[in-house]
Amino acid sequence: MRSRTLTILFALTAILLFAFMIQQATGVFSFKELSGVTQEQAKPELSFDNLRGGRYQTETENYLQQHYGFREPLTRLYNQSLWTVFHYSKVVEDQRIAITDDNWIFETPTIEEYYQSRSYHIANDASEVANKFEEEAQRLCQIQAILKPYGTHVFVALLPGKEQVCAEHMPKNTKFFEEKKITAFDFYSKRLKELGVNHINFGEWFIQQKGHTDYPLFPQTGAHWSILAAMHSTDSLIRYMEHLSDSNMINITIGAPFKRTMRPDADVENLMNLIWPLRKAPNYLAEANTDHDTTAWRPRLLTIGDSFYWNIAHFTPVDDIFTKAPYWYYFSSVYFDGPESKVIEKDLLKEVLLSDFVMLSYSTVGLYQMSNTFSSRILHEIYYDEGETGPVDFDSIPNKRSKKFLRYIELKQHNALE
Amino acid sequence: MVFSSNIFLLYFMPVFYLVYFLMPRKTRNYVLLLGSLVFYAWGAPEFIIQLVLSIIANFFIVRWMCKTEKPVAKKWLCALSVFISLGLLLYYKYGNFTMENLNALLGITGHAPLSWRRIMLPIGISFFTFQSLTYTLDTYRGVNKPLEKLSDYMLYIIMFPQLIAGPIVRYCDVADQIRQRESTLADRMQGFYRFVIGLSKKILIADVIGLRVDAILGAASQNTAQLSEIASRIATLDTGTAWLVALAYTFQIYFDFAGYSDMAIGLGRIMGFKFPENFDNPYTSRSITEFWRRWHKTLGAFIMNYLYIPLGGNRKGTGRMYLNLWLCFLLSGLWHGAAWNFVVWGALHGVFICADKLFLGKVMKKIGTVPSVILTFLTVCIIWMFFRIEDIGLAWTFVTRMFAFDFNGFVFPGNAHVYTTLVIAALFSFITLTGWGKRLEQKTFYTDFSERQHIWVWIAAALLFIFCVAALNATSFSPFIYFRF
C-alpha cells in the first residue's frame, strides 16, 4: 500500500515538473493575459558563437521568464499572495505608485508635482522653472501669431492631474503635506492667459464639476482621467476649436452613464496583476456618438500630448469628427498616421501646416517634460533653413522666414501641400 | 546553470530525471555524466574542454601513481596531480588578484604596470578542485582504491548536484555510491522534498532579503560612479540601518548557501546518493569554533584533513597549533574569493578561533547558552560585512557606522514582506535552540515519513515548488502601463 502511495506521488511529481513545459509548448489552458508591457525578449537564436559566449543561455532564461507555462496565473497568484498578506505590490514600488488604505491609487510623481517639488527638483531652482515656462509661453505666442493667418490654430489643453481633483484622497503622508505653493501648472496657465495664448484649462472646469457629475472624474485605481471625463472634455474641445476657427464642427452626444464591469477604468490597478480586483467605487462608461451633419467641417487635428490623450483616442469617435487626427505621443512616437513611426522621421513644418489645429495636450505631470520640445523646433524651422542657426527672438515677430516655410505656405495657398 | 533558474527547474530537471529513470540501471551513471556535462557546459561553455582534459589527466596520473611501486615516484605523481588541480585554481581564481596586486606594487615603486588580459572565473572551480584533491590524496594515502573507469571518476568530479557550490564530497564518502547505489521511491520523494526546501530558502527568503541588502550596499558588479555613491551612502549610514543591513545579509548568506546545499543533497538523494550535510544550524553556535563545526561543514572537514593536519595540527606545540589554525582560516578566506576582504574575513575568524582556544571558549561556556549564542551570532554578523563589502576600507566604515549610535535617517528599504521574511529567517535560524525545534528538524530531515505524512508533505512541497516558480519569475516582472506613462 505504502509503495503504491509513493508510486502515485512520484508520478504526480513527474507530472508537476513536466506541466510547465507542456503548457508552454501546447498552451492547452488559456488564461487572461497579464496587463502592462515589459521589454519583450525575442526567442534566442541558437548558434555556436551565441552558445559559447553565454548569450544564448542568458537570453533563454529571459525568454523563459516571459513565456514559461502557467506564467499568467502564477504571476497573479504570487502578486495576490503578497498583496493579501503584506499589502505589498512590486509594481507599486517599482513604478512609484502610492496606494492608500481605502485603495486610492496615485502616481507619486503627480503628488510631488502637486506639492511643487517635482518640476523644481528636475530643474535646479524655482527661477529656472519659471524661465522655462515663460519662454515656452512666449514662443507659443509667436507661433500662434505666425500660423493663424495660414489657417493653423495652435492651442494648449491643460489637463488636471488626479492629485488636483482628488486631493482629499491622497495618502496621508506628512511628507506630501508641506505648505502648498504655486505649481508649474498654475504658473504656466497664468502666463498663457496673460499673453493671450490660445488655451483651455480643464483644471478649473474639473474642480467646478467635482461632486456634480454622475460619474467619477478620475477613477479610484487609475492614473488618468476617467473615460467619461475624457468624453465630456472632448465635447468642450470641439466647442473651443469651433470658437477658435469660427466654424461649425461635428457634435458628439454622450449617452447616459452605465456601470462598467468589463475592463474597468483602472490602469494602475491592472498593472498589479492581481487575481481579485481591489475594492473600489464603480467606474462608468457611456456611448459617444456623432451627429451626422454632412455640412459640418471636419478639420485635421494634430495632437502632441502625454498619455491622457489615450482615453480620447480610444473612447470618442475621433475619426468621425476629424479628417485625420495623428497623435504624437510625448513628441516622440507617432500614432494614428499610418504605421507606427517616430516624430523625428516626420517633416514637422509640413505636418503642422497641414493641420487645422495643433493641440498641445499637457497634464500636470507631463508638463515639464513636454514643454519646450515642439515650440523651439517649429520656430527654428519657420525662421531658419537647414544648417542655419541663430537665436529665436521672443520680443517681436522677426520678418525672417525659412525658404522651406515660404515654399510650404505657397503650396498651402494653392491647396497643393500634402 | 543554477538550480534556481527556469532552464534548470522547468527543463533540465524534468528531462534529466525522466531519462535517468527510464534508462537501465547500468547506464544511469553515463546519463548522469552526460547530464552533468550539459549542466556545466551551459554555464561555462568555454571552460568545459579544459575541465574535461584536466580530469582525464588527473585520472591517469593517479592510476599511474597507484601502479608504481616506487615511493618517490608515487610522491612525485601525487604532487603532479595536486599541481594540475591547484594550478588551474590558482590561475583562474587568483590570476587577476595576483596581477592587480603586482601592478599596485609596481606603481608604488614607480614602475610601469604589466598588461594582462582579465581571466574569467569558471563557475564551481573552487569546489571541483577540492574534490579532485581529495581523490588524489585519499588514493595516495591508501584510504580508497582508484576508480577503474574514467567515466566514474569524471562523474565524481562533475556530478551536477554538487558541482557548483558543494557540498564538498570526499572521494572516500561517495566512492561506493558511484559504483553502486539504491534509489528507493522514498529516497526519491525525500530528495524532492529536500530540494523544494532548499529552493524555498533561496527564492522565498535569501533573494527577498538580498534585494534590500543590494539596495544599500550595491549589487555585485559596480562601476566607479556607483561605487562612489555607495561609499558616500555608507559613510553617513544610520546605525539602525547598518545593523539591519548586517542582520539581513547574515540571514541572506545562510539561506542562500544552505538552500543551495539542501537542493544539492535533495537532487543527489533522488538518484540514491547520500551527500554529507553541509550546515547544522550554525547561528545557534555558542562560539566561533562551534560555528565552524556547523557552517559549511564539508569545507571545515576538508581544511582539517587536507590542510590543518598536514601542517602539523596540534602535534608541533601550542604556538604552532595557533599559527596553523590561523593560517587555515586565512587560506579559507582566500578560497572564498580572490580579494583582500576575504582574507581579512578569514583572518578574523582565525583570530576568534585562537581566542576560543586561549580563553574565550571558557568565557562563553560560563555565561550560559542564550548570551553566548547571541554574542557569537553578533560577532559572525559583524565579520560577515568584510565578506560582503569588497573594499576593506568601506567595510570598516560600515562596521564603525554600526557602533556610531547615530540614529538619524533610517533608510533600510523594508516593507511588511521583507520584515516578515527576516522574522521567518530568524525563526528558522534559531528554532533548534528549543526542544520542539530540534524535534521538528529531526522529523523533517532525518525521519522516514508514514504514508499519510508523505501525502501531506508532498502537497506542501508541490505548492511550495509552484510558489517558488511563481516568485522566481514574478519578481522580475515589473511592467509599465503600455505606452501610457
Describe it for me?
- The complex is a heterodimer of chains A (418) and B (485).
- With 418 residues, chain A is an alpha/beta fold.
- Chain A has a seven-stranded mixed β-sheet, with helices on both faces.
- In chain A, strand 10 and strand 11 form a beta hairpin.
- The longest helix of chain A is centred in the first third of the chain and has 25 residues.
- The N and C termini of chain A lie far apart (83 Å).
- In chain A, 39% of the residues are buried.
- The mean pLDDT of chain A is 85.
- Chain B is mainly alpha-helical.
- Chain B folds into two domains: 162 residues, no CATH class; 207 residues, no CATH class.
- In chain B, helix 8 runs antiparallel to helix 10, helix 8 crosses helix 17 and helix 14 packs antiparallel against helix 15.
- Chain B is globular, with a radius of gyration of 24 Å.
- The interface between A and B is large, with 60 and 48 residues.
